[in-house]
C-alpha cells in the first residue's frame, strides 16, 4: 500500500545513535536513542527498533570522517575516528546486509545541513553551511539544494587557523594539534578554562578568543564556498552572547573584501535543533527511493 | 552561415587584456593583447580588434573580485580592486552595450579552471581548483564540470593562515595584511628576499616558508572543497623545485586525516599555460549560445 510507505533515518553519533521512522511526508512515527558502544551491540538494538516497521528506504547521517568515494574500495567505511571499535568499520555494508533496501549514507553534519536547508533555518535557499561547535567542530555543506561531496566530503572543523594575538594554548586535536577544532571545540574551551564551558563567566576574555576562531573559520568558508547562510549550532553555541561576538569579528576580519549577505541573515541559529540530522535522513531516504 | 559561427573571449587582467576569436570548435582565429590602462581606452582597443569579426557570443574572465550575484544591483561590476580606474566599473554592462550578443562573465581564475578542466590538466575530471601564485594569489573552482559560484565567487587567495614557526614577516595585503596572498604572493616573496623572486637561490630557506603556506592553503581547500585535482600555476610556480616541496608539506600538514588522491596526480602543473582563460572563455561563450 503506497499510502503506508515508511522511511527510516539513523543519526549515528559518537555518544548515541538515534533511529526514527516517518511516513512519506516526513511525519515522525517512532524514534529511539541507544548508546554508542560497539557496532554489533548498537546496530543490533537499532535493528530491534526497526523490525516492526516495513521501511522502504533509509537515510543515515554518521560521525566521520567516512569514505564516500564511490570508486574507493573502502566506500561506506568509517575512517579515522578515535572510537576504535568503529575505526575502519564498514557501516554502510553492515546496514545494507541487515536491511536490503536503498540506503543513503552521508556525514551527520551534511545530513543536518540538508535538513536545515529543506525544512529549517535555510529553507528556500540554494546553499548553506551547518557548523556544530560541540565535542568536536564539524561542518556540513549544501550547494544547489544538494549535499556537497567532493573527492572526500568536507571536513570543515580541521582547518589550520591564524592565532589570536597572545593565544598560546597548545591545542588538543590528535591529528593537527592546533587546528580549529583543536583550539575552539568544547573540550578545548574546558581545558583553557579549567572548568566546563557552560560554567565560564559570560564576560570571561576566553569568549573573545573563541569568537575570533569561529569567525575566522566563517570568513574562510565564505571566501571558499560563499554559501547563502551559515548556521551555527552545537553545545558551545548555547552561550547566547557568543553569536553577536562572532558576527562582529566576521565583519572585522573580512574587512569588506567581499560581499556577504546582511550579517544577521547570514550567520544564524539552527531551527531544527536536535532534529536536523533525522529530518535530513528522511529526506535522503525519500531521494534514494526516487533514484531507484 | 552556421559553419562560420565565431566565438569571442576576453581575459581581462590587471596588466593586460587579451582578446581572441575562435571558430565553433575552439580553434584560434585571431588574438590580441592590449595594456590595461583605463576602461575607455582598453575596451576601445578591444572593440577595434573584434570589429572585423561577427562573433555570436563572448566569454570573459576578469580580474576581481567582481559582483556575480544576479540579484545584486551591482551585478557585473568590478569590486574592490586597487586599480582605481576600474573599481566599481560595470564591465559587463560596458561590454553588453558594445556588442549586444550573449556575454558570460566570470573571474579570470574561474574561467582558467574551466579551461583546464575541459581541455587541459584536469580533462576528464568532475572538479578541480586552479591556483595562480603570481602578483596576487587567486583560485578558480570547477565542481560537477561547471564553474562554482556561490553567493559571491570564491576568493581563495585571501584566507587567513597559520604562521610558519618563526616567520615574522608582516605581510602586504592591503585588506588583511597577513592573509595567504599577503604572505606568499610574488611581491611578498620579493619583499622578504629584497630581490626579485626569480633571483632567489633554490636552496634559500624562504622556499620552505613559501611551500608551507601554499601547502596549508591546499590542505584547507582539500578539507573544504575536496576537488579531484589541484592545478598550481602562476609566475612563482615557475620555480620548478617548489612543487615537490609543496607536495611534501601537504602530506605532512594533512597528516592522513582525510584521503586525497595520490599526490602526484593531485597537485599538478597547468597544461594550457597562458591559454587557459582564453580557452575557458570560448567554452563559456559556446555555453552562453546554448542557453539562449
Ligand atoms: N550551555 C553550554 N555552554 C557552553 N558549552 C556547552 C554548553 N552545553 C554543552 N557545552 C559543551 O558542548 C560540548 C558538547 O557538544 P554537543 O553539541 O552538546 O554534543 P556533541 O558535540 O558531543 O554531539 C561539550 O564540550 C560541552 O562542554
Ligand atoms: N621564474 C620565476 N620565479 C619566481 N617568481 C617569478 C618568476 N617569474 C615571475 N615570478 C613572479 O611572479 C609574479 C608575476 O606573476 P605572473 O603569474 O607571471 O603574473 P600576474 O600574476 O601578474 O598575472 C611576480 O611577482 C614575479 O616576481
Ligand atoms: Zn584537527
Ligand atoms: Zn588579503
UniProtKB/TrEMBL annotation, chains A, B:
**Which reactions appear under catalytic activity for this entry?**
D-fructose + ATP = D-fructose 6-phosphate + ADP + H(+)
What UniProt keywords apply to this chain's record, in alphabetical order? Carbohydrate metabolism, Magnesium, Metal-binding, Zinc
Q: What is its EC number?
A: 2.7.1.4
Keyword Zinc attributed: yes
Cofactor(s) the record lists: Mg(2+)
Q: What class of enzyme is it?
A: transferase
- Lineage top rank: taxon: Bacteria
Entry-linked PANTHER family: FRUCTOKINASE, TRANSCRIPTIONAL REPRESSOR MPRA
Its recorded name reads fructokinase
Amino acid at each position: 500500500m503506497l499510502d503506508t510507505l515508511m522511511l527510516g533515518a539513523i543519526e549515528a553519533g559518537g555518544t548515541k545513535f538515534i533511529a526514527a521512522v516517518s511516513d512519506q511526508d516526513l511525519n515522525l512515527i517512532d524514534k529511539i536513542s541507544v548508546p554508542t558502544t560497539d557496532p554489533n551491540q548498537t546496530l543490533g538494538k537499532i535493528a530491534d527498533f526497526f523490525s516492526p516497521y516495513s521501511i522502504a528506504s533509509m537515510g543515515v547521517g554518521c560521525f566521520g570522517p567516512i569514505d564516500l568515494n564511490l570508486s574507493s574500495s573502502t566506500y561506506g567505511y568509517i575512517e579515522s575516528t578515535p572510537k576504535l571499535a568503529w575505526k575502519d568499520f564498514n557501516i554502510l555494508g553492515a546496514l545494507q546486509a541487515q536491511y536490503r533496501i536503498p540506503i543513503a549514507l552521508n556525514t551527520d553534519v551534511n545530513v543536518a545541513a540538508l535538513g536545515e536547508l529543506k525544512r529549517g533555518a535555510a529553507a528556500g535557499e540554494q546553499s548553506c553551511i551547518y557548523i556544530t561547535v560541540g565535542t568536536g567542530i564539524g561542518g556540513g555543506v549544501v550547494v544547489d539544494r544538494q549535499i556537497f561531496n567532493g573527492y572526500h566530503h568536507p571536513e570543515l572543523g580541521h582547518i589550520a587557523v591564524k592565532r589570536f594575538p597572545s593565544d598560546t594554548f597548545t591545542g588538543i586535536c590528535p591529528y593537527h594539534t592546533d587546528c580549529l577544532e583543536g583550539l575552539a571545540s568544547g573540550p578545548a574551551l574546558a581545558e583553557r578554562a579549567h572548568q566546563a564551558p557552560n560554567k565560564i563567566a559570560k564576560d570571561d576574555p576566553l569568549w573573545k578568543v573563541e569568537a575570533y576562531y569561529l569567525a575566522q573559520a566563517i570568513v574562510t568558508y565564505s571566501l571558499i564556498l560563499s554559501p547563502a547562510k551559515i548556521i551555527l549550532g552545537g553545545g558551545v553555541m548555547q552561550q547566547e552572547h557568543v553569536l553577536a561576538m562572532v558576527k562582529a569579528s566576521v565583519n572585522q576580519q573580512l574587512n569588506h573584501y567581499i560581499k556577504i549577505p546582511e550579517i544577521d541573515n547570514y550567520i544564524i541559529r539552527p531551527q531544527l535543533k536536535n532534529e536536523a540530522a533525522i529530518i535530513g535522513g528522511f529526506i535522503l531516504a525519500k531521494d534514494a527511493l526516487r533514484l531507484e
